[in-house]
């Protein structure tokens, strides 16, 4: 959060707060901040500039686990996996804890799938929950690779410290729903036993 004495403001922004600078007598418009006692804008996290008009996103999301595996049955429905990416803006740019300053738009992560992966799978944009699309049948014994992309919006005025997206490769293993009895019966028939 930064303190800036007001100089000029950009009239394009809609949500504005007004204050008077006691030293210059100028009216101050605080776009993404609070008007301070002495006519300075106190910027909310992720914003900077004399009127708190510049969006700052210094860090991109990253996955702690770059490759993961989930095992599901061929008849699986619903959520099968939850992707989790972290953004260091939360804690470094934005304070942790309750209150107005704890809101951190520059740490918001958006999840998506690489374009060739979205025929069979679907991911919730904000929660990262991965599920099968309705009506999709997966074949037992087959492994599917899904690339999950975590990204955040960069309308930032500054150059980010890290790239603003990360990819996690998830291997979805589809196992058979055969019981142990079914598996053993199939094994015995394959050893040359002839049924009468």
Overview of this structure, please?
The chain is 7% helix and 36% strand. It has 196 residues and is mainly beta. The chain has 2 domains: 3-55, no CATH class; 61-176, Immunoglobulin-like (Sandwich), CATH 2.60.40.60. The strands form 6 sheets. A 4-stranded mixed β-sheet has the order 9-16-15-12, with no helix packed on it. The protein has a 3-stranded antiparallel β-sheet with strand order 1-5-4, with no helix packed on it. Strands 10-14-13 form a 3-stranded antiparallel β-sheet, with no helix packed on it. The radius of gyration is 26 Å and the shape is rod-shaped. Mean pLDDT is 75; it is low at 1-25 and 187-196.
Structure in a nutshell:
The protein is mainly beta and 196 residues long. The protein has helices at residues 89-92, 180-189; strands spanning 3-5, 17-20, 27-30, 33-35, 40-43, 47-48, 54-55, 61-63, 67-73, 79-82, 85-87, 110-113, 121-123, 129-132, 143-151, 165-175.
């Amino acid at each position: 959060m930064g303190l800036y004495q007001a100089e000029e403001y950009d009239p394009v922004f809609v949500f504005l707060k007004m204050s008077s600078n006691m030293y210059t007598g100028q009216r101050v418009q605080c776009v993404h901040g609070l008007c301070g006692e002495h006519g300075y804008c106190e910027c909310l996290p992720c914003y900077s500039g004399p009127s708190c008009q510049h969006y700052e996103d210094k860090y991109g999301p990253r996955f702690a686990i770059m490759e993961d595996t989930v095992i599901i049955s061929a008849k699986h429905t619903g959520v099968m996996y939850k992707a989790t990416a972290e953004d260091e803006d939360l804690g470094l740019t934005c304070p942790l804890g309750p209150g107005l300053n704890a809101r951190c738009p520059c740490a918001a992560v958006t999840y998506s799938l690489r374009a060739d992966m979205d025929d069979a799978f679907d991911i919730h944009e904000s929660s990262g929950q991965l599920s099968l699309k309705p009506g999709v049948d997966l074949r037992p014994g087959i492994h599917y690779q899904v690339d999950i992309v975590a990204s955040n919006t960069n309308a930032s005025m500054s150059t980010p410290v890290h790239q603003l997206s990360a990819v996690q490769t998830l291997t979805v293993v589809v196992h058979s729903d055969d019981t142990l009895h079914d598996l053993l019966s199939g094994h015995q028939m394959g050893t040359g036993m002839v049924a009468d």
